[in-house]
Design brief:
Shape: rod-shaped
Number of helices: 10
Largest sheet: 6 strands, antiparallel
Number of strands: 16
Order of helices and strands: HHHEEHHEEEEEEEHHEHEEHEEHEE
Strand order of the largest sheet: 2-1-9-8-7-6
CATH superfamily of the largest domain: Histidine kinase-like ATPase, C-terminal domain
Number of domains: 4
Oligomer: single chain
Distance between the termini: 77 Å
Strand content: 15-25%
CATH architecture of the largest domain: 2-Layer Sandwich
CATH class of the largest domain: Alpha Beta
Structural class: alpha+beta
Helix content: 40-55%
Radius of gyration: 42 Å
Length: 471
């Protein structure tokens, strides 16, 4: 029963009692009886007016409270004429105006942020209070359709954040690099964090303060992803989020600029020196062969080797410089099957000398790609050369192509890529061969990146090593 009904019942009961008492008191005097009735009527009228002046503001405030409960900030209260009530109405209306402005501003900011995240060419992952994945933007969702991406990038990235691992005495204990940090979420106590060892399983880890962690991870196709973990406060508790950015192109550009400067400097110095050395040595060799009594035999024994070594040095530096001067691909419609057969026939004789069989498993339908034929031929030559050097003597190489998606695979049954070298095979000048220059795969990588192709070179469970290229 509401207070207003109780108040009305109380007034009704009081006036009925007073009326009955007045009737029995003045039953013999009509004048006094009429006066008592007029008094009771006036009292009831005054009580009603007082009731309205007290209850109406309460009803007004009740309607305002209901509007706030429904999150309707468009309802404002009207002045009642009561000084005390009008002050409350003014405060309420000012509060409603401020709430409405903040709500509109907040929605506009949320809408802008949402549109920004939808269009951004980077991944944003929001975590829940327990560090588990809660949501992600479209770019990240598209990348996570690839199981290899989830395994190589998303899962290690999630481990950057301290995780809740067990319960002790009602308090959650979480791990951060092997050191426990207690948090009392039920009491609303925010954790202070600790400087545990960093996780992530990638390269380039660093820690900034206690709230931001970054790592560079290697994903499918040897692409590099910069992952940054930070936190924000939601309803008084800390939540984490991840920002994932593909930095392959940036790293390649910086990498190429760095080693390009070194190579140009080395090529300039060594080539200039070699030019003079080769000129002098050839002159001496000619003089020796013309019949000099003291030098001919010495020149014939030593100078050819010196000239050969100098020429090899020039060729060595030329190979390095060629990586830097790779031209922009001249893309044209190219029949992939014909290109693979043509390049394989060129490499055929040297493969047969090493007792290596070359077999084709090409798509039945002609595969047409938009590519620079000369550069793709260089990729195939490098792949076949690497396969031959890996096999040594006696082995198999299979060249295959696919129509959907368009691409090719070159597989060999050699000993494969050492596990310790798997992450560095496309690193400039890295080689597992004692005399290797590390130029072939670097050139392959740059050509395929320029064609925007997806590629990988892996030794799989069946023991075969495969270079997969998809356009």
């Amino acid at each position: 029963m509401s207070s207003s009904i109780k108040y009305i019942l109380y007034l009704a009961f009081l006036h009925i009692v007073l009326g009955v008492l007045a009737f029995y008191q003045f039953v013999g005097s009509s004048g006094y009886l009429i006066a008592a009735e007029v008094f009771l009527i006036c009292s009831a009228y005054i009580a009603l007016r007082i009731y309205r002046s007290l209850i109406s503001p309460l009803r007004l405030l009740s309607s305002g409270a209901a509007a706030l409960e429904d999150k309707d900030f468009s309802v404002k209260l009207m002045k009642t004429g009561s000084f005390e009530m009008d002050r409350i109405v003014k405060v309420y209306n000012n509060m409603i105006d401020q709430l409405r402005e903040e709500r509109v501003s907040s929605r506009q900011q949320e809408e802008f942020l949402d549109q920004l995240l939808q269009a951004a060419e980077l991944g944003v992952v929001i975590l829940d209070f327990d560090g588990e994945l809660a949501s992600m933007n479209p770019w990240m969702a598209a990348q996570c359709k690839d199981l290899a991406f989830r395994t190589a990038v998303l899962e290690p990235a999630l481990h950057l954040r301290p995780r809740l691992v067990k319960e002790e005495g009602g308090k959650g204990v979480r791990e951060e690099g092997g050191k426990g940090v207690k948090e009392e979420r039920s009491k609303g106590i925010k954790e202070e964090g600790s400087k545990g060892e960093k996780e992530g399983g990638g390269k380039g880890e660093r820690e900034e303060g206690n709230s931001v962690r970054t790592v560079v991870l290697t994903g499918p196709g040897n692409r590099r992803y910069h992952v940054e973990q930070a936190s924000f406060v939601d309803r008084g508790f800390e939540r984490g989020f991840l920002i994932v950015q593909d930095v392959t192109t940036d790293l390649l550009t910086a990498e190429k600029d760095a080693y390009g400067k070194v190579i140009r400097m080395m090529a300039h110095e060594v080539n200039n020196s070699n030019a003079a050395i080769i000129s002098v040595l050839r002159s001496l060799l000619e003089a020796a062969t013309e019949g000099d009594e003291t030098l001919p035999q010495l020149n014939k024994d030593y100078l050819p080797a010196v000239v050969g070594r100098a020429e090899n040095m020039t060729g060595f530096m030329r190979n390095f410089a060629r990586v830097v001067r790779l031209p922009i691909p001249d893309r044209r419609r190219t029949k992939l099957n014909e290109l693979l057969r043509r390049t394989g026939e060129v490499m055929g004789p040297i493969l047969r000398e090493n007792d290596i069989s070359l077999r084709y498993e090409l798509a039945e339908n002609e595969v047409v790609i938009n590519a620079d034929a000369a550069q793709i031929e260089q990729v195939v030559v490098n792949a076949l050369t690497n396969a031959r050097e890996s096999i040594g003597v006696g082995g198999k190489i299979i060249v295959s192509s696919t129509s959907f998606p368009s691409g090719f695979v070159i597989a060999d049954d050699g000993p494969g890529i050492p596990e310790s070298a798997a992450e560095n095979i496309f690193t400039p000048f890295f080689s597992t061969k004692p005399t290797g220059q590390g130029v072939g795969l670097t050139l392959t990588r740059d050509i395929l990146e320029a064609h925007e192709a997806k590629y990988e070179l892996v030794t799989e469970e069946d023991g075969w090593t495969r270079l997969r290229v998809m356009f």
